[in-house]
Amino acid sequence: MQSFRYVVRNAAPGAALLQRVWRVLAVLSHGPEGARSVVRTRCERGADIARQLGLSEATASAIRALDEHWDGHGQPYGLKGDAIPLHARILGLAQTVEVFFTEFGVLTAYDMAVARRGTWFEPTLVDALLSICEDASFWRELGSGDAVKLQLVEPADRVMFADEGELDQIAEAFARVIDAKSPWTYRHSHGVAEMAVAIGRLLGLSAVELRALQRAALLHDLGKLSVSNLILDKPDKLTDAEFAVMRRHPEHTFAILNRLSCFRGLAEDASAHHERLDGRGYHQGRQANQLNRRARILSVADICDALRGSRPYRPGLPTERVLEIMDRQVGTALDVECVAAMRMVLTDCPTVDPIDIPAARIVPTLVEDYQQAA
Amino acid sequence: MTSMSRTRTASSSNADAAGHPWLTTRYRAADGRGSDNGVRLSQVLAGLSYALDLTEGQRPGHSIRSCLIGMRIAEVINLPREERSALFYALLMKDLGLLEQRGTIRSALRVERPRSKDKPQAHRLVASVAIVPIRRS
């Protein structure tokens, strides 16, 4: 009944009554199985990527059972009690408490946990939370959001380190996370990385530079995770407001990568993929002399892959059309050498194929709008 | 005492179960002895967890704060130390399989923009068996 009330309240607000009724029926027709399918995808994919990161099977299992409830009414498998891995039980409680703590404070978070004791959460864990709730300094420091404290809670005798090869794997795994955000950008990050490295090789970049370029390409759209799917998957031209949101994604990419000492050197390059030589790009409006070769390569690779892939508003473009469009941007937006190298890659490397996803709707006037496409 | 440079190998059951290319992640002493110029994995993943928070529609630092809360609970219930590492990374990377839940649900409902009062409800919307609003007690 709660679910039904929520659907009725939120379905197509502001629309005509008939439209709202139709929407309610459409949502309800998917039923619980629709929701279960969404959660299953989320949990299984999370566990799978955790394994790709080299994390333990216990970690992957916990992520897989993240949304199960103690009483068996969780998702996606309806596991009950001890059948849910202990780590997952802790995850479920910790993440929910965090949300309520952040929004309403510790007392409300605790009330929520008590109200769901025995239903969502294992009673023993809720009882353990009580002793923590009384620790005012813990919550005060938690509110300060100091990530450094993580080092204090990481088991000291099990600290893990990653070498260069592992950092590559981490970039690969997160590219997978990014690409999964929208069906329209499936394998986009990987496609950009393949093209960028191919161009870089032709231009004589060193092995060290190629590695940096590959990582920057894999992570260049990290900030796109902040963009709503209502915008990413919109089958029409974006409004000014929506485009403004979209234009901020390189800024987020920079902010996230710049936090990390190991990826800080990539932040500038990765976040410059929408910059133009004439300074009319975004997010910083850099001039040509502020764009190094890696950034120029990345920009070309990004646009190329975006044009060749399908988007909600148009199908993928054939190579000839891609080259035609990009040639027109040489000198103003794009670097001439990088575009020439890209041309060679496309000509000589048939394996770099566009991704074949049918377009939901073709909007011919937007075919050249690669800013939205990328 | 801290353990030194235990290197896992490709024959690990973890790798076998996963079927993915194995990462030669090393456990090393927390004081850095035995260093081979690697970076601390937790720091890398903590930084990247901010990206996961973005999609889940959480406030920045959600994953890290969840990790701190979860590890504190582990401490209270005396979770064996050897199990805490798995928990630590699970807490940090719990949203790896992210789906934009608010976007997914709102898209289905044709809601054009989130309403501020829905903010806490949006979290775990799907997880709470589809569209069940969280009741504040």
Q: What radius of gyration of chain A results from the CA coordinates?
A: 24 Å
Sum up the overall morphology of chain B in one term.
Answer: globular
- Poorly predicted parts of chain A: 352-371
Mean pLDDT of chain A: 85
Oligomer state equals heterodimer
- The top-level CATH class of the largest domain in chain A is Mainly Alpha
Q: How many E-type strands of chain B?
A: 3
- Strand-pairing-aware structural class of chain B: mainly alpha
The CATH H-level superfamily of the largest domain in chain A is: Hypothetical protein af1432
Strand content of chain B: under 5%
List how many beta strands of chain A DSSP finds. 1
**Percent helix of chain B:** 40-55%
CATH topology (level 3) name of the largest domain in chain A: Hypothetical protein af1432
Spans of chain B of 5+ residues with little confidence (pLDDT < 50)?
1-35, 101-137
Second rung of CATH, namely the architecture of the largest domain in chain A? Orthogonal Bundle
Report, as a whole number of angstroms, the end-to-end distance of chain A.
43 Å
How do the strands line up in the largest sheet of chain B?
A: 1-2
Please count the helical segments of chain B.
6
Helix amount of chain A: 55-70%
Mean pLDDT of chain B: 61
Q: Tell me the major beta sheet of chain B.
A: 2 strands, antiparallel
What would you say this structure looks like, in words?
The complex is a heterodimer of chains A (374) and B (137). With 374 residues, chain A is mostly helical. Chain A folds into three domains: 1-61; 65-157, Hypothetical protein af1432 (Orthogonal Bundle), CATH 1.10.3210; 174-373, Hypothetical protein af1432 (Orthogonal Bundle), CATH 1.10.3210. Helices cover 59% and strands 1% of the residues of chain A. Chain A contains 19 helices and one strand. Chain A has helices at 2-10, 17-52, 57-64, 86-104, 106-115, 123-133, 136-144, 150-153, 164-179, 188-202, 207-219, 229-232, 240-246, 249-258, 264-270, 293-308, 319-327, 336-348, 370-373, and one strand at residues 160-162. The longest helix of chain A has 36 residues, at 17-52. Chain A is globular. Chain B is mainly α and 137 residues long. Chain B folds into three domains: 1-31, no CATH class; 40-97, no CATH class; 99-137, no CATH class. A two-stranded antiparallel sheet of chain B has the order 1-2. Chain B is globular and about 35 Å long. The model of chain B is unreliable at 1-35 and 101-137 (pLDDT under 50). Chains A and B meet through helix 1, helix 2, helix 3, helix 4 and helix 5 of A and helix 1, strand 2, strand 3, helix 2 and helix 3 of B. Strand 1 (160-162) of chain A pairs antiparallel with strand 2 of chain B.
